[in-house]
Amino acid sequence: MNQKRNIPISLPSMGQDEWEALKEPIFSGWITQGPRVKEFENLFAETHRVKHALAVSNCTTALHLALVALGIKEGDEVLVPAFTWVSTANAVMYCNATPVFVDVDPVTFNINPEEILKKITPRTKAIIPVHLFGLCADIEAIKRIAPNLKIVEDGACAAGSALDGKPAGSLGDIGCFSFHPRKSVTTGEGGMLTTNDDQLADTLNKLRNHGASISEEQRHKGPKPYILPEFDFVGFNYRMTDLQGALGVVQLKKLDKFIEERNERANFYNKNLASIEWLRTPSYGARFKHGWQSYVLFVDETRSPINRNELMEFLQQKGISTRPGTHAVHMLGFYKNTYRINASDYPGAFQSNEYSMAIPLHNRMVAEDYEYVVEVLKTL
Ligand SMILES: Cc1ncc(COP(=O)(O)O)c(C=O)c1O
Predict the structure, then answer these.
(1) Which CATH architecture fits 256-378?
(2) Which of 85, 135, 182, 192 gets mutated to test ligand 1 (max ligand atoms within 8 A of its CB)?
(3) Which of 4, 42, 158, 335 has the greatest CB tally within 10 Å of its CB?
(4) Beta bridge partners of 320
(5) pLDDT at residue 135 above 80?
(6) pLDDT digits (tens, 9 = 90+) for 159-207
(7) Cα distance between the two ends of the chain
(8) How far is the CA of 88 from the centre of ligand 1 (A)?
(9) Is the pTM of this model over 0.85?
């Protein structure tokens, strides 16, 4: 076996190109939302085949704005998968609305469309399907089952993913993306909203900038910079900086290459881990283009020599970082206590919470790293 390695779960892939790109906003003096953010938005809209892309400070603020723009308010219910990052549900709380959990399929880790109908009431206004780990939720099935619900795609992990040839972010009413360093393309922190609806785009554009009728760049560079704009909404300051925009442009141009490399490595894992009968590798249909934000296994503890947590500890000792895929939000203190939910109420999310395990997958790994991960897993 190779000598001991130290393989992080994820590592941003940045270098000289990103470093160079930062110089322009730094030396120009325009560093808040401006021309580099605009360039990033245009490129994102083009690559995700949507009419509008609007950059924000992160995906959590994108989710919040999406719900505000759709008019979600106190008394409304919004469906969210029970297995996702906590901010999917938190965004609903920010609107004083009620998140209603829907169970997930522990094979895809995504929302189970068959569970949706059971959760719809006259108060249900919207659904936030999550494209977890880069695999799109089946939005087409959701549209058939719940044609009257507004759809906000939580595509935090899904830049470059697609369903039936249509990019994530173009499938629902509004798409939300993250550029946190654990995502395939990163701007440190950062987010993007996508929509094909002109009216929603206009509202989102104002909401992210305090509700102002025009952007700071338009005002400062226009003929009357001394006239402050009108404010017709209670907005937020959820802007992205031009420093991040500059990074985003460079990163986004590498997205196809990043996904291609990740896909190759995911296939390597799929092939080489298939013989371990107590590990289930990711499985999904031909309609889906996986973006491989993470590579997440399912540990079958009825057959594994050690349990999932012991396995994570064992791999940590061998220099291989792992994480649970994500968490079951209905099992987190706030949601469990506020809505008096039992862990067993959502068996798919419970199983995903207990038995999922992400292993390292990122663009700075070399072949020997992947081989080492497989070799170590095969020693058990
Ligand atoms: C499914 C999901 N939704 C939302 C978020 C929040 O993204 P951000 O960190 O950009 O706010 C994440 C972050 O990991 C996520 O995985």
Answers:
(1) Alpha-Beta Complex (3.90)
(2) 85
(3) 158
(4) 7
(5) yes
(6) 999 999 999 999 999 999 999 999 999 999 999 999 999 999 999 999 9
(7) 14
(8) 7
(9) yes
